[in-house]
Design a protein that fits this description.
This protein has ten helices and two strands; from the N terminus they run E-H-H-H-H-H-E-H-H-H-H-H. It is mainly alpha-helical. A two-stranded antiparallel sheet has the order 1-2. It is globular.
């Protein structure tokens, strides 16, 4: 595959939905120790609703507008903290793709970079705060660096770099102190444990990667 069209977008997000269905229990268990315990349910429900919505809106037109609408739909579907952050990432990517009717591999680096920007803007968080931003931003940095050094990188190459970076970001959260929400109250439990939100960010990128390698 050398181009991604608006008709391909639903299947790409189906892979993200699949991985959150698989990891639902794990994320809920992790979240129960540090938060509300519903992270897996939220991610499975939110991303599970996206493919069908995207298929309904996969008419000839802009991918940017399609993603903006999808992000707004997801925000209404799962109006939780993580649901809002994920939907904000999707909408920010939609803004970055304004006017685009197809994407090339380098655009996936833009997607991850814009996603991280959307998280940071909406969540008012910074790197090192032990949030989803720590994994997604690390993924963005690696994906962008790859595109800059290897302009002929494939979709799979770009997303593999993003996933590798996100994995490093998740592991780094083991040494971070949570500053937001209920996790901050349970900060003493955080030492040596990866952040569940950062892991959700990693799984989101892994789902996107799976589409291009399947």
């Amino acid at each position: 595959m050398d181009k991604l069209t608006i008709g391909d977008v639903p299947e790409m997000f189906e892979k993200v939905a699949e991985i959150f269905r698989e990891k639902k229990e794990q994320l809920c268990e992790m979240d129960a120790a540090m938060g509300d315990g519903d992270l897996g349910l939220t991610m499975s429900k939110g991303y599970g609703a996206l493919p069908g919505f995207l298929r309904e809106t996969a008419v000839e037109g802009e991918i940017g507008k399609q993603l903006m609408k999808a992000g707004m739909m997801m925000q209404n579907e799962v109006p939780s903290t993580m649901g809002t952050l994920m939907s904000s990432g999707i909408m920010q990517a939609g803004k970055a793709f304004k006017g685009k009717t197809e994407l090339v591999p380098a655009d996936m680096a833009t997607y991850v970079d814009a996603f991280a920007e959307g998280i940071q803007r909406r969540g008012k968080c910074a790197l090192g705060d032990r949030t989803i931003l720590d994994s997604v931003d690390a993924g963005a940095r690696k994906a962008v660096a790859l595109v800059e050094s290897a302009p002929d990188a494939t979709f799979a190459d770009v997303m593999a770099a993003a996933v590798d970076g996100a994995d490093e970001g998740v592991k780094a959260t083991k040494d971070m102190i949570p500053k937001f929400g209920k996790a901050a109250v349970h900060a003493a439990k955080a030492k040596g444990v990866m952040d569940q939100g950062a892991l959700a960010g990693y799984y989101m990128l892994l789902g996107l990667k799976n589409y291009f390698v399947s």
